[in-house]
Amino acid sequence: xxxxxxxxxxxxxxxxxxxxxxxxxxxxxxxxxxxxxxxxxxxxxxxxxxxxxxxxxxxxxxxxxxxxxxxxxxxxxxxxxxxxxxxxxxxxxxxxxxxxxxxxxxxxxxxxxxxxxxxxxxxxxxxxxxxxxxxxxxxxxxxxxxxxxxxxxxxxxxxxxxxxxxxxxxxxxxxxxxxxxxxxxxxxxxxxxxxxxxxxxxxxxxxxxxxxxxxxxxxxxxxxxxxxxxxxxxxxxxxxxxxxxxxxxxxxxxxxxxxxxxxxxxxxxxxxxxxxxxxxxxxxxxxxxxxxxxxxxxxxxxxxxxxxxxxxxxxxxxxxxxxxxxxxxxxxxxxxxxxxxxxxxxxxxxxxxxxxxxxxxxxxxxxxxxxxxxxxxxxxxxxxxxxxxxxxxxxxxxxxxxxxxxxxxxxxxxxxxxxxxxxxxxxxxxxxxxxxxxxxxxxxxxxxxxxxxxxxxxxxxxxxxxxxxxxxxxxxxxxxxxxxxxxxxxxxxxxxxxxxxxxxxxxxxxxxxxxxxxxxxxxxxxxxxxxxxxxxxxxxxxxxxxxxxxxxxxxxxxxxxxxxxxxxxxxxxxxxxxxxxxxxxxxxxxxxxxxxxxxxxxxxxxxxxxxxxxxxxxxxxxxxxxxxxxxxxxxxxxxxxxxxxxxxxxxxxxxxxxxxxxxxxxxxxxxxxxxxxxxxxxxxxxxxxxxxxxxxxx
Length: 698
Description:
Layout (H helix, E strand, L loop, with lengths): L1 H38 L5 E5 L2 E4 H18 L6 H28 L5 H9 L5 H7 L9 H10 L4 H29 L5 H12 L1 E10 L12 H10 L5 E2 L3 E10 L4 H20 L3 H8 L8 E3 L5 H7 L7 E7 L2 E13 L2 E9 L7 H16 L4 H8 L10 E6 L5 H9 L5 E6 L2 E11 L2 E12 L4 H17 L5 H8 L3 E7 L13 H7 L12 E3 L2 E11 L2 E2 L2 H29 L5 H8 L4 E7 L12 H8 L10 E2 L3 E11 L7 H27 L2 E3 L6
Main location: membrane
Membrane topology: Single-pass type II membrane protein
Family: Belongs to the PpiD chaperone family.
């Protein structure tokens, strides 16, 4: 039984999530099959890779699992942007699995039975086996525990499910490692490349330059023609390859921020609440029932509350009343129940007993008292934890490390911080019965137990109704070609969201835009979306202004985007012409500077790999031209990012010959191999026909 408990607790989130996937599929399947019969199979297809469909009923549990991981990581709070990221993580994993499995088949990569045996219970265990069955201090795998758990599968269905999921993951990791090794072994660096890289990082150039900035010509003095746009577009076509369809929309957000009337109403409410709070016989219960923000009724240390409160409340004696005080968009009311000095942190060990495993709480308390006596009489808590504890700390002798207030459940925290070094206590918590040993208490500072009430200043239903009526009236009145002008007429601010992808979870100025984005992808260019969208901070009416398809964007699609670059290109022609006139009949950089009314600027110790000209900008073309020039020769005008340059090279300083070509190659290969896996996967994606219909479902 102990081995199975060990297996269940050590398998962690991965296996629990796997079981959740199986259960979710079982629950969802009948409903989705019915939907397929009514609407057709396409309604259940989230996407496809080279014709292989990704079904919603198989994909959605993975999304839910990814969201659950985000919730666990961020304490249960997941906004729309995080949800979109979680969904994208699940999508990338699904695409990766399909593409890589095809590659494994094409390359003949497999995991043999002997290899799998070795990964599970042999001399070269999988990292997952080490994680679940390894001693954290020595790194050695308890093979006896592995074998016992494998044998126990026959009598434990849940344990078998866990092992099936674990084995599948181990095989997957083994295949990924084989593929990664193939990719790494396919890249190399030549001696010539190693020497070039060494020179690029160590060869120094000294030069002088004069420049004319693009800002020296006012935009209003430049006339851009269609030919200018076309020339820039043709020269930079690769920049305008759109990897996925994007859309632009404009919107008006009808704010639902609290009005002055709302503020007065909330203030009256909080003043009545304060009067009741002063006289209530049960401070903690009253606070818990009336606060919008829950603060545990336990001792807390300075730094845990809002700054305005935190800076004063710890100076109040027990029995004091604070508030109502408004800060950070909420009113605060606080009763100081008690205050004292307490350790800043505690180092502790424990043994956790699960009452359900030994016949109930009474037996668990008896065992805890026996273990407490043994420890008091000199027995090792580390040895007892390894034998009796049911949580992961048993592998470290029950050591919980050092923790501050707020890290443990209140019952355990109070026992650890209220006791003294060396104390051994029996503590009951939601996790079971603990035998706690306080190993060390560190530091000392004032802590306070507070009955805490916080009431947020929120808009009233009347304020919300007024904003919604304005939004509805605007939606009923507006036409696609009058959106901006009508908004301006009414004094509304028009927001703009550009290059919004189908699965994006955010948009400028909007806190929960997923429903709006989803509808934008079902609309046609020029459509005013047919509903008012509810955000946390307002009601939104939107108008789809642009659709940028996947693939090569046309000039008209990018004309607005490239206008500043085209402007500089036209200016560059004018400035180049001016510099060519200055160069005519001139042999020195000083003479050129004199003709254009500029000063010569020297640059010392420039390296090719860091092409930033001091006081100017990163100028790749200019610095590249410098390293390709002859010493003492006056250059032709070079168009840079900030302006047009003319320069002359004073000299180069070559580094000492490379001392260890092999070491240079190794350093370069490390960087290349790190990039190669991502580049290989990107190439697989680009070569595949991937259809993404997620916007229809999420």
